[in-house]
Amino acid sequence: MNIRFFIACIALFILAACGNNKNKTASADSSKMVIAKPVPGTPIKYDSSKRYIFLTWDDSPQPPGTNICKSIFHEAGVKATFFSVGMHYNIEPRRKRLLDSIRNSYPEFLLANHSFSHAFKDNYNFFYTHVDSAVNDFLRAEKEMGIQVKIIRLPGRNTWAGKTETKGPKTSEHVAKKLAEMGYNIIGWDVEWEMIKGNSPKQGATQLANKINEKFESGYTNEQNTMVILAHDRMFQKQPYMDSLKAFIAILKKDPRNVFETIDHYPLVQNK
Fold it and tell me: Mind listing the domains of the chain with CATH numbers?
């Protein structure tokens, strides 16, 4: 064999092997690529043929209710928002871990602000007449719970406020306006799953679902084609009420128009 031909063959073999190694390295590197996680507050595009449902559950972390609701939502594949209270977060390590898991579960779940003290432990008149103290209470909750969005629900008041609107009871108006001036959005609710008899749900699943459909059909909601539903985590600790929550979600999911979203995608928030 010609020595020059032999050397040329060896050189071609080495070049081919290097090329294959580069391809393998590139393939390995591409397999390690991580898709960026969505950031809370990133707007979505609305579909006018859909009806947007916002499940907003208040007063977390309140185990076992919060854990149960979180599991039910996850199993049903629906998004939800937990409006949380700072003084409930600071009680014990397991509550901190629970709330941390909600914060880290976006875009499935969103953590939002329901004050630190829940209006000085339900002292509503004093809370809303002392505006600076009330505002500082929300700021403390935001800092201590690591809340990533400027979205607030006022304790005990169905108030809406943001850059484009302010409406609700006069008693909370000054607090809501000051928070709105600071760039916060205040979210009320269209329908409440009410409580009776020591935190038991008042309405059944079908009754509540029918009420929601009626409001959608009449257009009697704060924003067109949207529905903010308020409930409290602690309502669903017992098996019959857990089953009711599962049934309620199942009924809503049967309608292909219904889309479940977190409250950072509500029009008032997106249109800031």
Answer: 59-270 (3.20.20.370)
Average pLDDT, the chain: 90
Lowest mean pLDDT among 40-44, 47-51, 62-66, 111-115: 40-44
Residue 172 burial (C-beta neighbours within 10 Å; 0-12, 13-18, 19+): buried
pTM more than 0.85 = yes
Split at pLDDT 50, 70, 90, the class of 32 is low
The three-state (H, E, C) secondary structure of the chain, written as one string: CCHHHHHHHHHHHHHHHHHHHHHHHHHHHHHCCCCCCCCCCCCCCCCCCCEEEEEEEEEECCCCHHHHHHHHHHHHCCCEEEEECHHHHCCCHHHHHHHHHHHCCCCCEEEEECCCCHHHHHCHHHHHHCHHHHHHHHHHHHHHHCCCCCEECCCCCCCEECCCCEECCHHHHHHHHHHHHCCCEECCCCEECCEECCCEECCCHHHHHHHHHHHHHHCCCCCCCEEEEEEEHHHHCCHHHHHHHHHHHHHHHCCCCEEECCHHHCHHHHCC
Read off the tokens for 260: 């479940």
Q: Residue 160: is its pLDDT beyond 70?
A: yes
pLDDT of residue 19: 54
Based on its alpha-carbon atoms, the radius of gyration of the chain, rounded to whole angstroms, reads 25
pLDDT of 21 above 70: no
- Residue with token string 């449902």: 53
The reported pLDDT for the residue numbered 234 is: 97
Could you tell me which of 118, 115, 34, 78 has the C-alpha nearest to residue 254? 78
